[in-house]
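Anyone able to model this chain together with 2-acetamido-2-deoxy-beta-D-glucopyranose?
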Amino acid sequence: MGLRSTLVRRCQLLIVLLALSLLMTAIPHHQIFASLNELLWKHAGRLPQPSVNAFAGGDGGDVGVDGGGGGADDDDRRAFDVGQLHAVRGDSGREPSANIPEFRYLLNEPDTCRPRAPFLVVLVASEPTEFEARDAIRETWASESVALRGVSFRRLFLLGTASPASDAQRRIEEESRRHGDLIQQNFTDAYHNLTLKTLMGLHWVSVHCPHASYVMKTDSDMFVNLEVLVKAVLEQQVNEGHQQQQQEEEQGGEITQHGRVPRPDYFTGYVMRGFLPNRNPESKWYMSEDVYPGASYPTFCSGTGYVMSAPLATRLYRASLAIPRLRLEDVYVGVCLDSLGVEPVFPPYEFHFNHWRVSYSPCQYSRIVTSHAFSPSELRHYWRDLQRHRDEPCG
Ligand SMILES: *[C@@H]1O[C@H](CO)[C@@H](O)[C@H](O)[C@H]1NC(C)=O
Ligand SMILES: *[C@@H]1O[C@H](CO)[C@@H](O)[C@H](O)[C@H]1NC(C)=O
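re: yes, here you go
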């Protein structure tokens, strides 16, 4: 008898659980996150000084946020009124000028996209003294010899300044003369300034390469397979562009870059959805409640490698002018995307982008776009091996 009633109770419990899980799947997840997001923005609007710590290095102390006006009952859903923050941004909302007022370019390559913009711009965040890592990338996955099925790409490394000012800068300038692929602004190169680095890259694209089709941002310790990126991820979206090219040719008009029109607002990578801010001050990913009071982050892509349509890079840069910076650059890019109403999408194959290290095999590496944590010598080693198995990576 006792046994039977226990069984019955277990069955009931199971049924309840089953019903609950059915209910959960019935509610679209984006709705849950949308609500969380809404909560966040409303909350942020009521903070007395949401921007003070958010600006990396900026003197945001005098940013006045109208605590009374932007209440939660506001009609505007994004009660976090970014407009009020324009004051500190110098060139708020206007066309990006050739210089971010706060920072100036110490090294620039304004002609990289002339006379023709490439299909793809690859921006590699790199520390000033990572000479070896940059050379390895130049010789492997981003070398000029990489054939991308007839489309062109440009490689640029993004640098801040070495601190303390050292002999490094002289070497960097030499390197720049030799390779012509370094972009550097006058902010201190530090983990906490990574957001500035990405913004520099987006600014550069918006001013010097707005007619590229796609932009990728990645890091200097990454393995990247550009061929897979182009073939399996980006070319999926390019076919419509071919038709336009034909039309333009027939009309004798100017052909835009390959006539390839990127899908509008395309943003992909290793998608991080529903992530919560880390509130542990010891953590590398610490996010204080003062700076980011929200319960969760908007969907973002791991900073180890993400790709977007180039016009979106310009829009993102402009949006950033009005949004207090966060130190976690990938989260910050997600917040800017969210402000534009753009959500990152999954790549065609779930494991195209990886923010961990995928164990090496020629077969695996002929299918993925990114894999994380490579020393320069490992990069060379695996790259060579991959080329050896080029024709039959899985055979
Ligand atoms: C960078 O350059 C700008 C423009 O010249 C200047 O206003 C700013 O103080 C500099 N910033 C740093 C961190 O050196
Ligand atoms: C960059 O990072 C350093 C060290 O974390 C910090 O002192 C500096 O204020 C940051 N910002 C700029 C603009 O250099």
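The two ends are 62 Å apart (CA to CA).
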